[in-house]
């Protein structure tokens, strides 16, 4: 799986423009690796955000063209009634018929765009939609079709219950060099590859990028101070099972025209796939942690082996537990470092991510969980040392179900990877009841994008670090083949206990298909953490499921640490 969207080496959030006019466009530089990543099936955000240097629409350095007659004003857009309920009704009806094949563009010039020319195209910020609304907090910019992005997406605005097509032409984009020679002037586009919404997220005078939709059903959002990292999808269908995976696709979007001073914006989407159709609603509210309230209405056309709800896709290449496999100056490379689950009773689980030697899948049975998500807990630049990728700024994403999702499981899929361009981590909710032909399902949930640090008021300690290495005593040959795991618990009420209180704290540990040879608990005063050290052995290569928590005073004193270790 290729890494979705803007690659791990992107140093800055793609920003819109400074306000008021004249506008300043912040434009990142993209490598070939980043653009190839952007076009893959497993996440495909266009890297057509720009190209360094000054440019005007159709390139201001070009020779002057002969004067032409003025273009007549466009006809008034045709309006049609629109509501989420109507969209859902249409999708339910569509699910009773045959699957709709993907639309392809017939524009010849789009097929001529290759990597080199596509990266020289960006949206003209002066053509941003919604910019003329008084006190607007949102502006919309489109991604260009071409190169890897061949299937048109259609976009409309919605105002007072009426939808109007939002059409785009080559006049809306800035072309440089080779791209200008390929793309004709004043040509209508058959659609777009996706779009992004900008807002003054980090400072009031700059329109920063907030959220982008592009590629299948992928989207990404940013919290204040974030840089793009993991992505979300509308749905996962048969991911990592015995049948071929489907990638449902958003084919049409409707964006509610924001009112003056509005602090949220609503997007609707139509989904198509071989096995289902769907109607989606996204209510997007920027902030320190940007929230996206999602309502998904799904209509099943064919039985689905495994339905993945609220899927998140990320990258974990290496960290302290597997750095020896990578000859790299950087101590860590990952968009996310752990899966967190808050259970119905409030207990919390933390599963550090890994880059396994072979495909690994973990299932966490739950009933009406409070939340789950992929997190980037490590926020220190010194722990990454990547001044370009800025992994310490990658957002965490928490999924909070709205209503009772009942019984099911959180599934974590970890895929071997040698390159940070690959998204190799997937997490999603699997309902207990399988999706059958004729079913009509609805799921509502909130996605929060941002740093999402541990709650400082929580009386339970959280897992701050997990290290691993050869087992046994340091300086002595390890003849038993054990593996050592070191877990640091930080915060909570145990942070106020002295080292002498160690007998008041009991490590509760378990190793399924393995054996805990030794375990020790002590306080590391320098970091004010309680350190649990485990030496684990295994008889064969079967995965060993490990767990550890700290208890005392009649209650749990920490979240539960989970890990899957395979001896081979």
Record keyword descriptors for this entry.
single chain, 568 residues, mainly beta, 16-stranded mixed beta sheet, eleven-stranded antiparallel beta sheet, 5 helices, 6% helix, 38% strand, disordered N terminus
What does this molecule look like?
- The radius of gyration is 25 Å and the shape is elongated.
- The chain has a 16-stranded mixed beta sheet that branches.
- The protein contains 5 helices and 35 strands.
- The N terminus is likely disordered.
- By secondary structure, the chain is mainly β.
How are the SSEs placed, and which strands pair?
Layout: E1 15-18, H1 32-38, E2 80-81, H2 84-94, H3 108-111, H4 115-118, E3 121-123, E4 139-143, E5 154-159, E6 162-165, E7 173-175, H5 177-182, E8 194-199, E9 206-214, E10 218-221, E11 231-233, E12 235-237, E13 249-256, E14 265-272, E15 276-285, E16 290-300, E17 307-314, E18 316-318, E19 333-334, E20 338-342, E21 348-352, E22 360-367, E23 371-375, E24 396-402, E25 407-414, E26 425-431, E27 440-450, E28 462-470, E29 483-490, E30 506-512, E31 515-524, E32 529-537, E33 544-552, E34 555-556, E35 560-565
Parallel strand pairs: 5-13, 21-35
Antiparallel strand pairs: 1-9, 2-6, 3-7, 4-8, 5-6, 8-9, 9-10, 10-11, 11-17, 12-17, 13-14, 14-15, 15-16, 16-27, 17-26, 18-19, 20-21, 20-23, 22-25, 23-24, 24-27, 25-26, 28-29, 29-32, 30-33, 31-32, 33-34, 33-35
């Amino acid at each position: 799986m290729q890494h979705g969207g803007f690659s791990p080496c992107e140093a800055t959030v793609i920003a819109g423009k400074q306000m008021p006019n004249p506008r300043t466009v912040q434009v990142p530089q993209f490598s070939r690796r980043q653009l190839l990543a952007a076009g893959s099936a497993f996440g495909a955000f266009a890297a057509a955000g720009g190209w360094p240097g000054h440019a005007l629409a159709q390139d201001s350095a070009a020779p002057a063209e002969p004067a032409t007659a003025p273009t007549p004003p466009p006809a008034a857009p045709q309006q049609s009634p629109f509501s989420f309920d109507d969209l859902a009704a249409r999708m339910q009806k569509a699910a009773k018929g045959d699957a709709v094949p993907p639309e392809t563009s017939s524009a010849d010039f789009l097929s001529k765009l290759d990597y080199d020319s596509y990266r020289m195209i960006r949206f003209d910020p002066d053509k941003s939609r919604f910019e003329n609304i008084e006190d607007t907090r949102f502006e919309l910019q489109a991604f260009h079709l071409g190169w890897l992005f061949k299937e048109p997406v259609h976009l409309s605005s919605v105002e007072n219950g009426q939808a109007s097509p939002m059409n785009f032409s080559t006049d809306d984009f800035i072309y440089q060099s080779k791209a200008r020679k390929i793309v004709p002037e004043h040509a209508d586009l058959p659609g777009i590859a996706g779009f992004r919404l900008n807002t003054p997220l980090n400072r009031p005078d700059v329109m920063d990028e907030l959220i982008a939709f592009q590629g299948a059903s992928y989207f990404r959002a940013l919290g204040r101070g974030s840089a793009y990292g993991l992505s979300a999808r509308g749905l996962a269908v048969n991911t990592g099972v015995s049948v071929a995976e489907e990638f449902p696709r958003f084919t049409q979007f409707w964006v509610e025209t924001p009112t003056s001073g509005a602090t949220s914006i609503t997007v609707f989407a139509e989904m198509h796939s071989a096995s289902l159709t769907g109607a989606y609603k996204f209510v997007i509210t920027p902030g320190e942690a940007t929230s996206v309230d999602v309502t998904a209405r799904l209509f099943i056309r064919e039985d689905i082996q495994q339905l993945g709800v609220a899927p998140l896709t990320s990258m974990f290449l290496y960290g302290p537990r597997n750095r020896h496999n990578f000859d790299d100056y950087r101590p860590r490379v990952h968009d996310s470092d752990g899966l967190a689950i808050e259970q119905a009773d409030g207990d919390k689980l933390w599963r550090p991510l890994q880059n396994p030697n072979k495909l690994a899948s973990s299932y966490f049975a739950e009933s009406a969980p409070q939340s789950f998500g992929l997190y980037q807990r490590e926020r220190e630049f010194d722990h990454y040392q990547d001044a370009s990728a800025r992994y310490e700024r990658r957002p965490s994403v928490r999924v909070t179900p709205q209503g009772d999702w009942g019984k099911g499981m959180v599934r974590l899929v970890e895929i071997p990877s040698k390159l940070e361009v690959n998204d190799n981590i997937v997490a999603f909710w699997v309902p207990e009841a399988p999706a059958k032909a004729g079913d009509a399902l609805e799921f509502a949930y909130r996605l929060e994008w941002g740093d999402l640090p541990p709650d400082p008021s929580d009386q339970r300690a959280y897992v701050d670090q997990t290290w691993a290495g050869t087992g046994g005593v340091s300086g002595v040959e390890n003849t038993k083949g054990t593996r050592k795991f070191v877990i640091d618990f930080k915060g909570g009420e145990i942070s106020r206990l002295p080292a002498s209180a160690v007998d008041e704290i009991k490590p509760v540990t378990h190793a399924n298909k393995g054996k805990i040879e030794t375990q020790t608990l002590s306080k590391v005063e320098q970091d004010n953490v309680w350190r649990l050290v485990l030496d684990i052995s295994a008889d064969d290569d079967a995965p060993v499921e490990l767990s550890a928590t700290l208890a005392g005073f009649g209650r749990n004193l920490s979240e539960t640490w989970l890990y899957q270790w395979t001896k081979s």
